[in-house]
TrEMBL record:
InterPro entries: Split_barrel_FMN-bd, Stress-Dev_Protein, YdaG_split_barrel_FMN-bd. This is Pyridoxamine 5'-phosphate oxidase family protein. Gene3D superfamilies: Electron Transport, Fmn-binding Protein, Chain A (2.30.110.10). It comes from the Bacteria. It comes from Haoranjiania flava.
Length: 169
């Protein structure tokens, strides 16, 4: 497995690619307590600065946790392509209608009876401070074929297809 650390525009591009492809993450709060509070969340978008945006209820435990401690960690997993992403950063809650209008998605409607005008709607922005990814250089299928060939040929596998690294934004 090789290491490739990314920063600035390359880092944002990789973060956006992996997070938006996976779409669902485990959103963790109360990082200093055991067990860590974790719940699945659907990502709305990753913006050009690398911020991750979510829609949440003002009354959720997650929002209460963020108000007490803004440190969060997100875990994205795209098993079908062997892509994984860990994001650690600070979460900020927005309740102004302009931000809600901008970030609203029809997919959130089942959780909010009144749609984007529901008084319980809030938007969460996660600003990454540390991120780490695991990926394959050539994609999962090529990795599987390479592994299968090594097994059939009775040779050691070539671990050079795996790639991991830090993302600095």
């Amino acid at each position: 497995m090789s290491t490739e650390n990314l920063s600035n525009k390359e880092g944002v591009k990789k973060l956006k690619e992996l997070a938006e492809k996976a779409r669902i993450c485990l959103f963790c709060t109360n990082l200093d307590e055991q067990p860590v509070s974790t719940r699945p969340m659907s990502l709305q978008e990753v913006d050009e600065e690398g911020n991750l945006w979510f829609i949440s209820s003002k009354e959720s435990n997650k929002n209460f946790d963020i108000k007490a401690d803004k440190k969060v960690q997100l875990f994205f997993s795209n098993n079908s392509d062997s892509e994984y992403l860990s994001v650690y950063g600070d979460a900020y809650i927005y309740t102004d209608q302009a931000t809600i209008d901008e970030k609203w998605s029809a997919f959130a409607k089942p959780w909010f009876d009144e749609g984007k005008e529901d008084p319980a709607v809030s938007i969460i922005r996660v600003q990454p401070s540390e991120s780490y990814y695991w990926d394959t250089k050539a994609g999962k299928m090529v990795s599987i074929l390479s592994f299968a060939f090594a097994v059939i040929a009775g040779k050691e596998t070539d671990n050079s297809d795996g790639i991991e690294g830090k993302i600095k934004i």
